[in-house]
Amino acid sequence: MFDKDRIMQFLRFCTVGLSNTAVDFTAFFILTWGGTPYLLAQVVSYSAGIINSFFFNRKWTFRIRGRINAGEAARFIAVNGFSLLTSAAILFILQDLHHGNLWLSKVIATGGGLAVNFVGSRLWVFSEKPLIDGGV
Prior knowledge:
The protein is mainly alpha-helical. It has one domain. It is built from 5 helices and no strands. The longest helix has 30 residues, at about 5-35.
């Protein structure tokens, strides 16, 4: 039922994600502690891990060789943009609509972004045959 290679790939993705999350959470809470509005802090902190994520996931998680091409970079930006929107929307709902705990809201929002990011990265960004090329 479970493919060992896919499980290992997901675990590598999560390991890279842990380092990105550490940067994200640190920047987010420093920014919000300093008075930056939480949605702006979310955009800035999330963006801080994107470059690291691209290179480590490309080389280590999905084992892509060769040169980076514009289509791959554009797909990566699109998936991460959608993941950011997903996590910001969850954070907004939990914070503004439900007045939840900021730490717990951030954790839940991060989980939602992780799911979107892995599926998009595996099936579209770092796939040898992306489901949708989009001409990019």
